[in-house]
Amino acid sequence: MEIYKELNNPQAKEFEQLLNNQLSKIQIEEGKIINGKINKITEKFVFLFIEGLKSEPVLDINELKTMGLAEKIKIGETIPVLLEKIEDRNGEVLVSANKAQKIKGWDKLVEAYEKKEPVMGRITSKCKGGCIVEHIDTGSLMFLPGSQISDKPLKDISVAVENVGKLEVYKLEKGMPILATISGAAPMLGFLGTVTGMIRTFNQMQDSGQQITADLLSGGIGEAMMTTVAGLIVGIFAYIGYNLLSSMINKVVYKMEATSVEFLDILHEPA
């Protein structure tokens, strides 16, 4: 897009000439990764400033959401982008943060391969002969053959997976016995308060002789009722909480077992 194209005056031409001279000095090239400064953030777009460009590059906010950056970016910060087109048919600059991340990720993987350095990855899915691994730092996808997952015998791996699963289940169920005890003991304590309250009432009736009034009885009976209500409330909430947590733990355990089975199936599959 030419600046002030519709204006045919010396000032506009002079400004355009100065800008073109500046562009030639900066030497911005298509296909290169450059840093853009965030100028403005809206619900749909992120506007960048890149020195030497005639127009303001724009990023789609959905692209940043898929990269997990939409909530992290702030005005004034810089973000690496791939300069795809300096000027398209509409005179706009085309940039991509996702492609820049993938290129940087590939460069890091190549560097790690050349230096024989390990990289951290997360298994995202299963495929024929292995699994797909996402590079932790850059999000690049890699293929991991099942035969290369471990150099240990499959039997040892199965035992290790089972032991780790038991340890995780123990961590999940930590505190559950206490909650179960509370749900059972709270109503019993409330019932104990009921008994002691009634004993107190009978003792007061015995000490008073024939003069029995409502004020005399209200103390012990009130104590009995209050302890019963308190015990039942605590017990009910503890019982509900215990069952909800048990259900959630069972779902997590099921997912762990299913994932473990898939993982072991990958190891058994021929590459």
In terms of topology, how is this protein built?
Elements: H1 10-26, E1 33-41, E2 45-49, E3 58-60, H2 61-66, E4 78-85, E5 94-96, H3 97-115, E6 121-127, E7 130-135, E8 141-145, H4 154-172, H5 176-208, H6 214-268
Antiparallel strand pairs: 1-2, 1-4, 2-3, 4-5, 6-7, 7-8
Helix pairs in contact: 4-6, 5-6
What does this molecule look like?
The protein has 271 residues and is an alpha+beta fold. It has 2 domains: 10-102, Beta Barrel (OB fold (Dihydrolipoamide Acetyltransferase, E2P)), CATH 2.40.50; 171-268. It is 55% helix and 17% strand. The protein is built from 6 helices and 8 strands. The strands form 2 sheets. A 5-stranded antiparallel β-sheet has the order 3-2-1-4-5. Helix 4 (154-172) packs antiparallel against helix 6 and helix 5 runs antiparallel to helix 6 (214-268). The longest helix is centred in the C-terminal third of the chain and has 55 residues, at 214-268. It is elongated. The model is unreliable at 1-7 (pLDDT under 50).
